[in-house]
Design a protein that fits this description.
With 338 residues, the chain is an alpha/beta fold. Helix content is 31%, strand content 23%. The strands form four sheets. A five-stranded mixed beta sheet has the order 1-7-6-4-5, with helices on both faces.
Length: 338
């Protein structure tokens, strides 16, 4: 009996390299000072500055939604890349503060910026979400599945704040950062080193689930907590190792890195990571946390935008970026700044 011959499936192929084509940012309009939040946590401006490096944190005004922040950042990124929404082939939104289980934030954003019918989906990877999305956008373009991908990190963390919490709430801010990833004649996004460790999920957590709150309203609205000392140790040891691996994966040495853009969790963590990585003294280090606070998935693109605005970068620099947070999750890659 003759075996029938089946046709061979066609495979999509794309360009060999990708890069970030454009960048946009949106911060909460309100600058909340340490003095405004110190009372309920029995603290002071001096204590908060010493422990975190934060002077103020940006929080959204009443009526400004997560989607508003994401749209503003996305339109700026599209303008920066010289593209329209109709030229976007995929949309990813990294967030943990879009409170509707469905629909996701990404298709709503795609509609707002004119990217319909592009495929659109959300990524829930906390403070590593932006770097997770960059890895996926890079792969999509190189695989020929998309020409231009809109990547957005957006969080309105003030919705998770407990004013009396001394572990994390006083760190949190609101914002969105967006980039467009597309083809490049030369490598512009290095290999991503990423992973997770769910066994340590209890280091950064939600006080209780929405189901528990539904069944027992006396629990109050769920808010965030963290085990600060343990998170510090993890970030400055394990996450620093991941950053080193990303440098090696990119075929570079620490001396080649011109800009360091870590998740803006805490200035003490940032400074310790610089020492652990043995980066050159000339490296530009992002410290956007000082007046923006911790904005989770938005923090890396927001910190990048601040470097441009302050004249610390002009484009073309080799930048190491690394996100890490609840999960525990982490991701790092070296990119060429647009």
């Amino acid at each position: 009996m003759t075996t029938p011959t089946r046709p061979t499936l066609a495979q999509a192929t794309g360009p060999a390299h990708t890069r970030i084509l454009g960048l946009g940012a949106a911060r909460g309009q309100l600058a909340v000072t340490n003095d405004e939040i110190a009372g309920p946590i029995d603290s002071s401006d001096e204590w908060i500055r010493q422990r975190t490096g934060i002077a103020t944190r940006a929080r959204a005004a009443e009526g400004t939604t997560l989607m508003d922040l994401a749209e503003t950042a996305s339109r700026a990124a599209l303008d920066s890349a010289g593209l329209t929404g109709a030229e976007i082939d995929a949309v990813m939104v990294s967030t943990m503060t879009h409170f509707e289980q469905t629909p996701a934030a990404a298709p709503l954003l795609a509609d707002r910026v004119g990217a319909t019918p592009a495929p659109a989906w959300d990524i829930s990877a906390a403070c590593a979400g932006y770097c997770y999305a960059i890895a996926q956008a890079d792969a999509l373009v190189r695989a020929g599945a998309a020409r231009h991908v809109l990547v957005v990190g957006a969080d309105r963390l003030s919705d998770f704040v407990d004013p009396t919490d001394r572990s994390i709430s006083f760190l949190l801010g609101d914002g969105a950062g967006a980039v467009v990833v597309g083809a490049s004649p030369t490598p512009g996004i290095g290999p991503t080193v990423w992973g997770s460790d769910g066994s340590r999920a209890g280091l950064i957590y939600q006080t209780h689930s929405y189901l528990q709150w539904r069944d027992d309203p006396t629990l109050g609205w769920p808010t965030l907590r963290q085990e600060g000392p343990s998170v510090y140790k993890w970030a400055t040891r394990r996450v620093a190792e991941v950053a080193q691996q990303a440098i090696v994966a990119a075929g570079l040495t620490p001396d080649d890195i011109e800009v360091f853009i870590p998740h803006q969790a805490n200035n003490r963590i940032v400074d310790q990571m610089v020492r652990q990585l043995e980066l050159p003294g000339s490296v530009v280090v992002a410290h956007d946390i000082v007046d923006t606070g911790n904005t989770s998935a938005a923090s890396i693109p927001l910190a990048t935008e601040r470097l441009y605005r302050d004249g610390q970068v002009s484009g073309g620099e080799l930048a190491l970026q690394i996100g890490f947070g609840a999960g525990l999750v982490y991701a790092a890659q070296v990119v060429v700044l647009p």
